[in-house]
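Project channel, design review

CF: Before we commit to the Pandoraea capi constructs, I'd like one complete example in the thread so the newer folks can see what an input/output pair looks like. Taking SAM-dependent methyltransferase.
RD: sounds good, go ahead.
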Amino acid sequence: MTDPRNESIAAANTAPITSSNRDQSELWNGRSGNAWVNNRAVLDQMFVPLARFLIDRARDVAQHTPSGRMLDVGCGTGGTTLALANALGHPWQLTGADISAPMIAEARTRAAHARSPVTFVCADAQTHAFPPAHFDVIVSRLGVMFFDDPVAAFSNLRACARPGASLHALAWRGADDNAFMTVSDRAARPLLSDLPTRRAGAPGQFGFADRERVSGILTSAGWADVTLSPVDFECSFAQADLRDYASQVGPVGLALTRLAPLDRERVVDTIVEAFAPFVRDGVVRFTSACWHLSAFAND
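CF: and here is what came back for SAM-dependent methyltransferase:
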């Protein structure tokens, strides 16, 4: 017999997004979303250690709950979701959700090629009507820092978690802890007058840097046993992919699209040179400094 809760998720696959996160919706359904699709392979390679960490957490849960449902929030092009599905096997039903239509389209293509039963939903996790008390585990690889109302978002996620469900999310710590992730910004800022200034606590890459603030968000949203633990991951990717990554991804990538081709290439040259301390023997290596957000949906 078909589970009606699974049908409700499947029906959402083609539902339009009604999002309060207007800026983020426009961003990830435009150039930023397309940039992530275009650089999908290198980004997945960069974040393999983060995916492995979440797989380990999921396997810990699976030891006590051999089958269940898992939600991957901000799943992007689906790399981590598909890796989780492969690790856990068919007893687990996985759903990936993301606000970006281009990235969800890519995720669905990847799932079809892999013949994976993962469901991908184009949805804003802050407002989407997930089935209530449905998921046994909620995970996220760097996808929870972009909500304009994070308490509302985590309250919505709490509502779709079953009693006793667990939350495991990875979010960046501060910019000062992530020197690699700020290279492009620092190198390009003197050359790009319209590069936006980062605001502490604003939706974005380092929006969850403040440990106490994030703990308060989760507690206010109804999650229990909230813990934020610092975790560092040694990441790498091929130097051959550095120029595309540095010139396309993030706020700098957006700003570069507004330049004339020759001006753009000059700025990109400067940015790529600034990454030199992280390059050795044809490989780019860096540390990702993250928080592991852990919590439970207690009764």
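RD: helpful, thanks. Residues 48-64 form the longest helix (17 residues).
CF: The radius of gyration is 19 Å.
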